[in-house]
Amino acid sequence: MIRFLLERPIAVLMSFLALLVFSGIVLRLLPISLLPPIDVPQIVVKVTYPNASPESIEQNVLQQVREGLITLNGLEEMESKAGSEIGTVRLTFDYGTRMELAYIEVNEKIDRLTNSLPKDLPRPEVIRINTSDIPVARVQVIPKANSDAVEVSLLTENVLKKRIEQLPGVSLVDINGKRERIISVQPDLEALAALRMTQQNLIEAVQAGNAELPGISVKDGQFRYFLRLATRVDTPEDIAALPVRSPNGTIVPLGRVAQVRYETQEMLGYHLFGMEEGLVITVHKQASAKMNELIPELKKSLDYFREDYPQVEFALTQDQSNLLNAAISNLGTSLLFGGIFAFAVLFLFIKDFRIPLIMGISLPTSLLISFLVFYFFNISISIISLSGLALGIGMLIDNAIIVLDNITRKRESGLPLFEACVQGANEVMGALVSSVLTTLAVFVPLVFLSGISGALFYDQAVAVAAILSVSLLVAFVLLPLLYWLIFRVGKRDSSKGEPLLFQRVLGVYERGFEWIFLRKKVALISFLILIPVGLGLGWVLETTGLPELEKTDATLEIDWNEPISASQNRDRMLQLISGLETFAQAEADVGVRQFLLFDGDNSIQKSLLYLLFSSETEKDQQLEILRTQIGKEYPLATFILGDAPNAFDQLFSSSMPYYEVRWKDLTQKKPIPASQMKPWLEDFPEKNWVPGPGLQEESSVIFSLLSDKLALYQIPVENVQDQLSKLFGVFTITDIRRFGEVTPIRLRENQGRFEDLLRNTRVYASDSTSYLLGEFVDYRYADQYKYVTADRGGIYQSLEMRAENPDKNRKAYLDWGISKNLGVDVKGQYFKDLENVRQLIAILGISVLLLYFILAAQFESFVQPLIVVFTLPLGIGGAFLILLLTGSTLNVMSAIGLVVMLGIMVNDAILKIDTINRLKVQFSLEKGLSGSRLLEAVLHEAGKIRLKPILMTSITTILALIPIIFSSGLGADLQRPLVYAVIGGLTIGTFTALYFVPLMYWFLEVTVGKKEKL
Predict the structure, then answer these.
(1) Which element (helix H / strand E) includes 291?
(2) Contacts of 597 by beta carbon, 8 Å cutoff, 6+ apart
(3) What is d(CA 742, CA 729) in angstroms, rounded to the nearest whole number?
(4) Is the pLDDT of residue 332 over 70?
(5) 3-class SS at 268?
(6) Which end of the chain has fewer CB atoms surrounding its CB within 10 Å, N or C?
(7) Cα–Cα dist 750/765, whole Å
């Protein structure tokens, strides 16, 4: 095949040029994202029910929603959580479920449930979770002094949002911190009493003044006109002029008995930027868009906004493209230094400048053509796929070095140039194909991991397979062709022998080879002892998800656990921010968040603070100040203070507790009262726990209607309930609607302590006699459950374990539940992690089997593949040693480094064994050697032949990675564990390929090889 292609150089060159042109076009079309667009198999149904308690939301809404959704296709888990005014149902589906269809099905079922839900309940929101839901940036909108906050909110909603939505690549723009204008009608109770009027007279007057006649028309001859009442109100002045009629017939303007004015609606949440109140716009990217093009366009728009709207300040924060830019920069750095060091090493080991020139052409060609595979497999350019390309670049350089070295060696042995190109590529073809297949066998099965990990590995596996496949194409077609075209033009180097540097290295190798083979058994036993010792270092290493990045930002999630208002929450957050000595940036979402895509707990008593510092040292100091301040001034508050989550953290974070013990009351479908639960918890078999959401308590005021008094004074219960809802709730009289703009008209009661309001507010009996409301309402303070939690089996309560080995007491948990007539179950991330570990072990076992099968087919031996298998633990031990010495952890990036290192080690071992097998046949025919003399001669000669490519591949890879160790920034922090793993593994791996492989070959040939021969 290679001969056939080399005989048609123009056709091959034109084919590669065509591939490069198409690749360049495709590269412009590929979407560029931080993460691949993964369908997270979760949907959240969010319910907002004003003035409703957790018990009311659970009984009247969430229970019906759960029963209506329990028959969904592919539903794996269902969890609901009811709080004050807010309830959520989180649906988790089997991975692989088509989430677009599940989303439609959930919406259809919610529509069917509408009639069975309370009439005053807004339609539940259905939120589909996707990786594209993670905002790529946040735009801060801060009104300047003397600016109207409501006008800025209208500007943000009606202008800024729409202008950002028009940017190419933007899918959604979400806003928090909006302020809305309302018209308030505050009754003058003394004036109403003097005229014997009630609040109801005011309400009826406003409703009558804002009445419409929808769909009514009149006929006038041949014409038909639609009617519109001219009495509709538009402003507070219009409302104040409305006539109000008293029961005795007196008519007065509404402005005489009530104060009507524009007001800002009471805020349930705020957004802070530094010490200023404002709004925040989160920008979400389309899956097919390019992030590196979207962010510059967004920054350009902000420049326009600053010119067009000088009354507002703008800032761009939490730009997630920094991670992507770091990954792209790392790839460029790897290519640049990889190329430079590869050229330098080639100059030192091969005395011809044309070899590095061929490498300089082949490497970018391979990388560019790889993007064609991305296009056909619908893979985006992301951190995941770029890390896959980085994995393959090391193998790509290795393949090129091996082919070029073999062609050069054939040419120096006296073969003509054309034959040297053909035979040099053909000779290593089988070994290189096997090495690529073994690398894929180690890596690709990880795609079958369940959940998001498997989806992420899919993009990485395709990227690795793409660049390795293309590298083979380039190594066997383009490299020999370029070698032939370039070297046939120039003069052949008449100097003989190897470069001086390589001759010295060769001398050191031969002395080492001679020393080890004089002590074969001792050396082999020493190598075999190193295997368990090296692997044992893995138990010492700390295991983490991602490497420790030098993060200069942090977040504070706090729940005050006190019944405070949103404005008090805001004041406390401002106090915390002002208590810090220094920070670069601060922003906070206080209380209820208005984001459409927010699927967490919306509570007035909660806040999220984001802080950015100039250095990690400064961050640690200021966080300690913050922690001390909260503990001293707000002892009831619970908070989580730590590094700000990046996109990876947000994607892999789980709301599921690590280990949770749940129980349900088997006799009644409601939470067990706190008075009964507290003594039971004292007998719980584990003491290191925190209460789950269903056991958390908050202070409440409980109203009780005095039925006997209501009956005695002939006061309908409905009148009292209606008066309470007007007094303490949000009572909307009507709405003024103008072309999509809605202004509510709301009844505003006097603000004050509720005890005073009860004592001063009157309620009317059937005969219009009025009495004080407080005479018929009793109240008391009590601690009530903050949330009501439930799953598909019903209401449950839970404890979250904090013990090191929480599952050891599982039987004790079950026995505790049986003694209390409770149904007990255990849940949590602990069991998910166990399942992932089991899957990983099974998948790695399959990978080793695949590797063995491929090598057995390559070597046509059942024994020789064991040599390669035994080399892997030595490389892993070397990687573990360097990770331990540098203080690194075993994490995702160091694991990727292990795969890279193993791929190169396998490559070297396969090529060496392949060379030994060929030389055995050649030496037995040409030199007539046999037995131990043949074996030692072959092992010695194969070591000399393969010494140069093994050293070149290892040295080029190590030198290309070393600059990352001394770099700074997020990208370098992310890649450093990978670099340590590769350097440690290759340092040991090179020594292994040089000495351990021939030792194992000798041992297996002497002890097992003779028995294997038929």
Answers:
(1) helix 291-308
(2) 127, 133, 172, 174, 284
(3) 20
(4) no
(5) coil
(6) C
(7) 22
Q: How far apart are the first and last CA of the chain?
A: 33
CA distance 360 to 970: 29
Helix (H, G, I), strand (E, B) or coil at 706: coil
Going 826 to 827 to 831 to 833, the CA torsion angle's sign is negative
Runs of H (alpha helix) within 377-519: 383-412, 417-443, 451-473, 479-489, 500-517
Calpha distance 732→699 (Å, rounded): 28
The residue among 926, 947, 938 whose CA lies nearest residue 990 is 947
Give per-residue pLDDT as tens, 23-73. Answer: 889 888 888 777 777 777 888 899 888 778 888 899 999 999 999 999 898
Q: Render the burial of 83-98: b for 16+ CB within 10 Å, e for the rest.
A: bbbbbbbbbbbebebe
What are the backbone angles phi and psi of residue 772, rounded to the nearest 5°? -70, 135
Cα separation, 320 vs 179, whole angstroms = 28
Using only the alpha carbons of the chain, give its radius of gyration. Answer: 37
Element (H, E) at 741: strand 741-747
Tokens found for residue 937: 């001669």
Interhelix angle 321-349/291-308, nearest 10 degrees = 130
- Cβ neighbours of residue 105 closer than 8 Å, sequence gap 6 or more: 72, 73
pLDDT score for 574: 93
Q: Are the beta carbons of 44 and 91 closer than 8 angstroms?
A: yes
Q: Which of 204, 252, 210 is nearest to 228 (CA)?
A: 210
Two tokens at 929?
A: 């050697």
Q: Are 911 and 402 in contact (CB under 8 A)?
A: yes
Residue 28 sits at φ, ψ, to 5 deg, of -75, -20
pLDDT tens digit sequence for 972-1007: 676 788 888 888 888 887 888 788 888 888 888 877
- Helix/strand/coil (H, E, C) string of 28-70? HHCCECCCCCCEEEEEEEEEECCCCCHHHHHHHHHHHHHHHHC
Cα 982 to Cα 989: distance, rounded to the nearest angstrom: 10
* Residue written as token pair 């802080």: 611
Q: What is the pLDDT of residue 898?
A: 80
**In sequence order, which ranges of 692-809 are alpha helices (DSSP H)?**
707-712, 717-728, 754-760
Strand ranges for 38-166 from DSSP E: 39-48, 75-82, 86-93, 125-130, 137-143
CA 218 vs CA 88, 225, 228, 229, 230: distances in Å = 48, 5, 11, 13, 16
**In sequence order, what are the beta bridge partners of 795?**
790
* Model pLDDT, residue 163: 92
Range with lowest mean pLDDT among 162-176, 790-804, 837-851, 867-881: 837-851
Residue 640's Cα: distance from chain center in Å? 19
pLDDT in tens, 706-732: 888 888 887 888 778 777 777 776 677
Distance, CA of 374 to CA of 154 (rounded, Å): 43
Q: Which helix (H) or strand (E) holds 293?
A: helix 291-308
A 10 A CB-CB count for 539 gives: 8
Q: What share of the chain is helix, strand, coil (3-state, %, to 5)?
A: 55, 20, 25
How far apart (Å, rounded) are the C-alpha atoms in residues 282 and 165? 11
Q: Closest by alpha carbon to 570, among 275, 209, 953, 262?
A: 275
| Alpha-carbon span 927 to 937, nearest angstrom | 10
Q: Are 230 and 267 in contact (CB under 8 A)?
A: no
Tokens of residue 361, six digits: 């052409």
> Are 846 and 859 a contacting pair, CB within 8 Å?
no
Q: How far apart are CA 575 and CA 597, in angstroms?
A: 29
Cβ pair 389, 331 in contact under 8 A:
yes
Q: How far from chain centre, in Å, is Cα 223?
A: 63
